[in-house]
Amino acid sequence: MGNGRNLPAGWVTTSLGEMFDFQGGGTPSKKVPDYWDGKIPWASVKDIKQKYLSETIDSITDSGLKNSAANIANPGSLLVLTRIEPGKAAIPKVPIAVNQDCKIASPKGSVDPEWAYYFFIANEREFLNRSSGTTVLGIRLSELKSVPVHLPPLNEQHRIVTKIEELFSELDKGVDSLKTARAQLKTYRQSLLKAAFEGRLTEQWRKDNAEQFESAEALLDRIRGEREVRYQEQLADWEAAVDDWGKQGKPGKKPRKPDAPLFLEGEYQATEKTQRPRKWCRVKVGDVFSVYVGATPSRKKPEFWLGEINWVSSGEVAFCEISETKETISEIGLENTSTRMHPPGTVILAMIGEGKTRGQAAILRTTASHNQNTAAIRVSESGMDPYFLYFYFLYRYEANRRLGSGNNQKALNKKRVMEMDFPLPPVKEQKQIIDIIVSALTQIDELSKTLFGQLERAQSLRQSILKRAFEGKLVPQDPNDEPASELLERIRQEQDEKPAPVRRKRRKQEATADLFDGND
Question: Angle of helix 113-122 relative to helix 154-197, nearest 10 degrees?
């Protein structure tokens, strides 16, 4: 804010209380329908989002205004929030009623309301520091009035506003360009992934290496054989458990025999209007990999937790690698739930969540169990690089989210995960695709970080412009301007001459027919 020393010529230190009259607001009773949906805009915190305010989400009637503590803010005044986001301001372009979280700041004298608006933006931290509250921040009216102001002459206020808006306009153009560039990077990333999984990125590589790698059909035959061996081993263990039922307890569920992978033959396989190369095939996740849904040990059993076993929650699945988990469970916790341990190289897919979580994937880089909101896909058992399926989930993120169902919360489930299809190239081509994607995404991430840094610098520059403006360093002073001290003196004299306001138990707004045209 500054201490008032070394002020520019013609400036003077005052306070918001000397410069503005403040009026509070109110909310008409929600129990009276006739008070709402009228012709009078009614502003609350959610409306104060930009410099000028012409429309509000809610509106009230004349009777709603008269029978509440709401007041009208006219053009030329400011709306200032005193709760939730203290100090945030807007300039009404039409008469607007306000609720109890707002104050109407009406200039007592010749103060440029746009200059005052920028003053509030520039001193956001000052208002926050003067606020209090445990659950909701709020600033008392006495604190609001006592905020110091370094006031320039009126003509200089106008020049400051003009310069700020000129610089902000240029800054906004730059910010728009940066945001456009970020959006284009996102589009490019999706185009890159689309080309990768249609085989277009490795078209020349296939021509150069046509006879040097195992076909996708041979890969599927090998995966089918390995899964059959694992199934027979699991079946033998289960049958032994059945024989020992009386000694060992229940044997658990009989293992599910894996389905035969789906192989589409032909020169090209067309799926969703895409063309896939010869020697590729389309398979379902559940036909190629073992899929498991996790579980959460009882929170009522402390002995089930804080052990040595990593346990993945859905919130940790965010297109990343997982080397350690936020929570761990114990051996007894693992034994008393249906979750299993999965090896490194397992792909975890989040199945639950309305936000960004559902449809995101992660790769285990450590042995871990997981919760019931995630599916574990054991890619490592196939000998394939888990990044191929991981990147395919990245490409299909939005589409996979739409596969979710449920009335209250959209969700995937084990069946839907197993039925997800994906293109399967030969292993060597998969590795080539992964290398290309990793290289390109690394460059995209670097560019994205650069753009993000430039956006942050733009915001810092915006604050720097405001700081210079309210230190008197943005525009030159004009010795012909009337000093702010004379303006302030006139305001004080006018206030001294005003009769004392009559206090009433309940504030009521006078009729507003002259402000609002027509009937409710």
Answer: 60
State phi, psi for 59 to the nearest 5 degrees.
-140, 160
Among 3.50.7.10, 3.90.220.20, 2.40.10.10, 3.30.160.100, name the CATH number for the domain at 269-425: 3.90.220.20
Query: Among 96-110, 168-182, 497-511, where is mean pLDDT lowest?
Result: 497-511
Q: Which residue has the tokens 């888990």?
A: 386
What kind and span of H or E run contains 370? strand 369-370
Per-residue pLDDT reduced to its tens digit, 287-332:
899 999 999 999 999 999 999 999 999 999 999 999 999 999 999 9
Helices (H), ranges, 369-426:
386-395, 397-402, 414-419
Beta-bridge partner residues of 350: 374
Confidence of residue 270 (pLDDT cuts 50, 70, 90): very low
What is Dmax (Cα atoms) for the chain? Answer: 105
Q: Which of 504, 518, 487, 512 is nearest to 74 (CA)?
A: 512
Output the CA torsion sign for 56, 57, 61, 65. negative
Q: Classify strands 361-364 and 320-322 as parallel, antiparallel or unpaired.
A: parallel
Instruction: Say whether 477 sits in a helix, a strand or coil.
Output: coil
Identify each DSSP E strand in 47-147 by its residue range: 52-53, 58-60, 71-73, 78-81, 89-92, 96-98, 102-107
* Same topology between domain 12-153+477-497 and domain 269-425: yes
First-to-last alpha carbon distance for the chain, in angstroms, is 46
CB 13 within 8 Å of CB 148: yes
CA quadruple 47, 49, 52, 54: dihedral sign: negative
Give how far Cα 290 sits from Cα of 223, 228, 367, 414, 418, Å. 11, 12, 16, 11, 9
User: What are the extents of the domains in the chain?
Assistant: 12-153+477-497, 269-425
The number of beta carbons lying within 10 Å of the beta carbon of residue 392 is 22
Is the Cα torsion angle 314, 317, 323, 326 positive or negative in sign?
Answer: negative
- Does 271 have pLDDT greater than 60? no
List strands edge to edge, sheet with 305-312. Answer: 327-329, 305-312, 369-370
Name which of 439, 420, 299 is nearest 349 in CA terms.
420
CATH of domain 12-153+477-497: 3.90.220.20
